[in-house]
Amino acid sequence: MTEEKKEIKPSIYGLTRDELIDWVIEHGSKKFRANQIWDWLYKKRVQSFEEMTNLSKEFVAELEDNFCLNPLKQRIVQESADGTIKYLFELPDGMLIETVLMRQHYGLSVCVTTQVGCNIGCTFCASGLIKKQRDLNNGEITAQIMLVQKYLDDRKEGDRVSHVVVMGIGEPFDNYNNVIKFLRTINDDNGLAIGARHITVSTSGLAHKIREFANEGIQVNLAVSLHAPNNNLRSSIMRINRSFSLEKLFDAIEYYIETTNRRVTFEYIMLNEVNDSPENAQELADLTKKIRKLSYINLIPYNPVSEHDQYSRSTKERVDAFYDVLKKNGVNCVVRQEHGTDIDAACGQLRSNTMKRDRQKAVAGAAQ
Ligand code: SAH
Ligand code: SF4
């Protein structure tokens, strides 16, 4: 007898408000019902459909038949001394993802994962160690915010997620439609209402998607992972540069700036004696000269990844010298602070370290 596969219902968090309105109308009810449900989901943040007490029993049953509420299971929570919290979540198919909450001076910021693994394969990154297994759907991305907010709600300290960065595992523009729906859901005024200007999406540089993003009409911030100031070096550490050269990337960025009139942030990881010489700083200043007033550079300390031991963090002297060259050229830049250094800090590390531990346990178990 073949075992029937357990059906996994989609999460209701996967519907944008417009989709929820359509669904409700298709199921014989009125638009205001969708608004009620939306309010239960994102304002009152109920944990079950049953708690939606102004809906009829029949309608609750209809929702239960079609959707699950929260598709994620919390596997591990790690809290760091500086208040950073890392969550390891399990997806309905057993795959693992991670989400991070950071306490910033301006509020509480959550870093979400968009894919299981990443195919871009940057040579310094823990996430790229595991090839992409699948995209997250937008319900699974939204659920990460909802679970972190629930964790905060349970503490009853009135904390609210105020900022979101799409900088966890995965390349968001390789899962474009789900990411856009997610952005619209968390930005919705009648729900979580996280301001577009408080949301940042980071891409490794898929130029055609940067153009598409420029045309979305949402005021979300764009960050571009640059990490090298010339094509040779960038192609050697970021394979994506072989498909989208710096010329193509900067054409798309200029298009984005012209279309949206918004600033772009560049992320630049400081890799000791790889991309951190004063000459590299001068190249970086020259590369960004044309968009000087509309760009910002974050110099990021490298989080060492044991599998990538060819890289280490730039020394303070090298960071200072690099920063000085940028400043002399009038570049807007800052050396970014780190979060959660006493827990599995870098993107993808909690997940890859947990998987390693799980594998070790499995091997140990098999040997017994
Ligand atoms: N894929 C997207 C977003 C996720 S990565 C992107 O690449 O932009 C988010 C940021 O973390 C990127 O700037 C990435 O280069 C950086 N990053 C990756 N590994 C890192 C590490 N070990 N230490 C510090 N930053 C890292
Ligand atoms: Fe993927 Fe971003 Fe890591 Fe590159 S840095 S491998 S694009 S997650």
TrEMBL record:
Binding site for S-adenosyl-L-methionine: 170-171, 202, 225-227, 303
Gene3D superfamilies: 1.10.150.530, Aldolase class I
Required cofactor names: [4Fe-4S] cluster
UniProt GO MF annotations: methyltransferase activity
Entry EC number(s): 2.1.1.192
Chief location bin: cytoplasm
Domain Radical SAM core: 104-342
Keywords for this protein: 4Fe-4S, Cytoplasm, Disulfide bond, Iron, Iron-sulfur, Metal-binding, Methyltransferase, rRNA processing, S-adenosyl-L-methionine, Transferase, tRNA processing
PANTHER family in the cross-refs: 23S RRNA METHYLTRANSFERASE, RADICAL SAM CORE DOMAIN-CONTAINING PROTEIN
Protein name: Probable dual-specificity RNA methyltransferase RlmN
Provenance organism: Streptococcus dentapri
